[in-house]
Amino acid sequence: MIKPDKIMQEFDLITKFFKPLTNKTINSHNLENDTAFIDLKQSEHLILSKDLFVEDVHFLKSDGAYKIASKLLLSNLSDLASSGAEPLYYMLGFSKTNDTDISFVKEFVKGLRDIQNKYNISLIGGDTVKSTKYFFSITVFGKTKKHKFLTRNQAQKGDLIYVSGDIGDAYFGLKINQQKKLNLNKDYQYLLDRYFFPNPRINLGKELIKKNLSKCAIDVSDGLLSDLNHICVNSNLTANIFLEQIPISKQLKRILGKKIDNEYLNIISAGDDYELIFTINPKDQKKIINLANFLNIKLTNIGYFTGCNDKLSLVNLFNNNQEFKKIKINKYGYEH
Amino acid sequence: MIKPDKIMQEFDLITKFFKPLTNKTINSHNLENDTAFIDLKQSEHLILSKDLFVEDVHFLKSDGAYKIASKLLLSNLSDLASSGAEPLYYMLGFSKTNDTDISFVKEFVKGLRDIQNKYNISLIGGDTVKSTKYFFSITVFGKTKKHKFLTRNQAQKGDLIYVSGDIGDAYFGLKINQQKKLNLNKDYQYLLDRYFFPNPRINLGKELIKKNLSKCAIDVSDGLLSDLNHICVNSNLTANIFLEQIPISKQLKRILGKKIDNEYLNIISAGDDYELIFTINPKDQKKIINLANFLNIKLTNIGYFTGCNDKLSLVNLFNNNQEFKKIKINKYGYEH
User: Fold this and answer.
1) B266 contacts on A by Cβ (under 8 Å)
2) Element (H, E) at A60
């Protein structure tokens, strides 16, 4: 038998804390039904992504509920960005543990609320359970015009490879977080924030489709090399990457100083940047400069695709315009 | 840096085991993108539900992967049934632990496959993570005609309360499972199967809408009383329930024998039946008899709704036509 106090807690969690996140959209049925609904025009695709986040794997409890919730939602929105979709709604799977208190839930909800407001989305459903460790699941919903989305398998031979923003901030931000230092200087704080509050490139994804500039993109979640790998395998191409062209923030440059040359391989192998890698036809280079100005973001050409000579795809890394390292990619991943 | 062997395992899990579950629908992009997509007619709603399942809370590892996966998907389909939706797709969040071996994954996939085939659905996306304990998340997608779905808040004063199938089998099946007995007789095996393989009433939900017989339904997941409670609160009504009319399977009757009178309160308080409670106008009683014949399922009238006299909703339980117990329901749940 379900005990009244269990119901009360569950009820409170849902009606006091999660229901306000529905923004009163009728699609959520006030979280009073087991189901929600979404409508769509015949000319639209609904774009979906689902992710799981596990304590001690994807986050630490000590990160705090606000940062955990923010990153949860932002990294899922980045999946929508990589498809060029406009975000609409999300569903939340929330596990509470024996020591989940009201302040944790409040901070968690505040984190979600701030992201919702920024990206104009709302909660439409989900589930709450009890568990020994925290884990969360998000399903995000966005839309694109029909047949107008970015995928990993549509890069062409000769395409230029671009990346948004800076690469490596999150890699160093994670390191800073692990050191649990107090009184960080501005540069350190910047990198830490980049780790916890990635910037899903929603507008970039949308504009790439709208302006017919790209059909192929992926977000950098596992690492520049690893995610580029997916494009190579799925589009059957070899990527040629110029290490010095990889965009590094001035904050990270200041911190690394001369050590930066030794860090390039780490920087392109680490994840959590949530920038977009996308590919364009060389004739559209000028349009990309205009787009960067229009969106006020950095868009950097880091290399180009050539055909695949053998059955293995490749990433060729160049340093000072010299071939520096060949990374063979097979269907299982890459080998040095 | 992501190590090749980690990628290989992840890759195998997805391409060898989960990709075949996509049934080659293009909506899944072969699980090669972070996103999937769904199309919908302008005249349709997409109906969504998301659930979390946690080891030692919702299932035991010793239940075996086939049963765990089956129940996971079936209970989610029951949410779609309670809305009257036709199932389309699902997304899977899968956590593997250090001791997840190929045989576990194979059995898990076989469980999903069998349910997919029965309900003509396919996998379109998801996520895999590592965790210390198993937990899974399912998001299911179905469709209804626009504005044609069943909800908890549309019951009317005077409506008759119906329930599909039998109540209590899962309650006793859970008990049998906990006892871990070998060599079960047929009745015990039947109840155990009812616990692990619930029967989401998809066709019933669809027909109730199609034939304009009901606007209000819920599936029995927490227990007949608890789920009826949701209708009472959301529709602002009092439910009058006749205990003897609650449908009990002949298997459970044989096992309980004369003890059945003492078990009614347990039977209506236990969950996991995944039958539908739905409400109809008394004038449509004959049509429900026809529908039961048409669908070849048991549909039983167990009571009726009256208005709410005070601010608290009520469930009045009757035994031998005598009022037997009043159960007050407030917004936090029910009290005896």
Assistant:
1) 1
2) none
Q: State the ipTM, two decimals.
A: 0.90
Q: Which domains does chain B have, with CATH numbers?
A: 4-145 (3.30.1330.10), 160-335 (3.90.650.10)
Contact A123, A91 (CB under 8 A): yes
CA distance B306 to A200: 52
Cβ contact B54–A95 (<8 Å): yes
CA angle at residue B226 from B222 to B228, to 5 degrees?
115
Give the residue carrying structure tokens 């690394």: A256
CB contact under 8 Å between B270 and A83, yes or no, is no
- Among all chains, which residue has been given the structure tokens 């200087």? A185
Both tokens assigned to A212:
């017919």
Give the per-residue pLDDT at B13: 87
Tell me: the pLDDT tens digits for A8-27? Answer: 466 688 889 999 999 989 99
Among A29, A53, A222, beta carbon nearest to B151: A29
Cα torsion at A265, A266, A272, A278 (round to 10°)?
-10
Residues contacting B299, CB < 8 A, separation 6+: B162, B163, B164, B204, B288, B289, B291, B292
Q: Which two tokens stand for residue B113?
A: 């496959």
CA B1 to CA A222: how far, in whole Å?
Answer: 8
Cα→Cα distances B43→A294, B15, B209, Å: 38, 35, 15
The side-by-side arrangement of strands in the sheet containing B299-306 is B217-219, B276-280, B160-164, B299-306, B238-242, B313-319, B322-330, B333-335
Which residues lie across from B316 on neighbouring strands?
A: B240, B326
Q: Which residues, including other chains, have CB under 8 Å from residue B90's CB and lie 6 or more apart?
A: B73, B76, B121, B122, B123, B124, B138, B139, B140, B141
CB contact under 8 A, B79 and A41: no
Q: Identify the burial level of A196 via C-beta atoms within 10 angstroms of its C-beta, where 0-12 means exposed, 13-18 middle and 19 or more buried.
A: buried
Whether B35 and A48 lie within 8 Å, measured CB to CB: yes
Cα gap A14→B140, rounded to integer Å? 20
**Chain A: residue whose CA lies nearest to B95:** A52
Whether B119 and B202 have beta carbons less than 8 Å apart is answered as yes
pTM of the predicted structure, to 2 decimals = 0.92
CB contact under 8 A, A332 and B8: yes
pLDDT in tens, B187-208: 999 999 999 999 999 999 999 9
Residue A119 parent element (H or E)? helix A102-119
The torsion angles phi and psi of A222, rounded to 5 degrees, stand at: -90, -20
From residue B215, give the alpha-carbon distance in Å to each of A98, B42, B201, B233.
38, 21, 15, 16
- pLDDT mean for each 10 residues of chain A (336 residues): 44 87 92 92 96 94 96 97 97 93 95 98 95 95 96 95 97 91 90 97 98 97 92 91 94 92 88 96 98 98 88 76 70 45
Residues of B in contact with A133 (CB under 8 A): 131-133
- CA separation for the pair A267, A262 (Å, rounded): 10
B333 vs A11, A34, A36: nearest CB: A11
Distance CA B249, CA B252 (A): 5
Nearest CA in chain B to A221: B34
What are A238's strand-pairing partners? A306
At A144, which amino acid appears? T
Helix (H) and strand (E) counts in chain B:
10, 13
Q: Give the residue on A whose Cα is nearest the Cα of B49.
A: A35
